[in-house]
Amino acid sequence: MLYESFIHPITILSTLPTAGVGALLALMLSGNELDIVAIIGIILLIGIVKKNAIMMIDFALAAEREQGMKPVDAIYQACLLRFRPILMTTLAALLGALPLMLSTGVGAELRHPLGIAMVGGLILSQVLTLFTTPVIYLLFDRLAHATRRRFARTEAAE
To answer: Molecular function (GO) terms listed (predicted)?
Structure first.
């Protein structure tokens, strides 16, 4: 089981809707349709956004386990120390997708939806997941602790 918990993989997956919404909004605003090429762009986008969330959550969990930090301090430190690698990964993907989005010439209309989906999704997910991932991490962590306490009381009563 990933991270020895059911909660933290859900935390990582919670970053994906912002990427999808960003890609769909960018396609809608640019007047492009959701075709197979745009779906390929969304799949690429999901991989990048998921990796960014894994970097943050993995670092926070390691800080909790190895350094004995509280979840709030661990996710705060993860946000500070993982911001630059996350930003570099996102910018590299975004700058790689810009030529697809802005290209002209033969076959450019085929590549435009791929670039637009990637750029729109990366921009929105970068802005939102840096704020939402720590909040969801702490929310799910508190939910897990409350559930453990409830089960401990139930087992003690029996």
So the answer is: xenobiotic transmembrane transporter activity
What lies within 8 Å, CB to CB, of 125 at 6+ separation is: 15, 18, 19, 22, 45, 49, 52, 90
CATH code of 28's domain: 1.20.1640.10
Cβ within 8 Å of residue 146, ≥6 positions away: none
Output the pLDDT for position 7: 84
Q: What is the pTM of this model?
A: 0.83
158 belongs to a structural domain:
no
Q: Distances in Å between the alpha carbon of 42 and those of 13, 32, 33, 120, 138?
A: 14, 14, 13, 10, 27
In a domain, 16, yes or no: yes
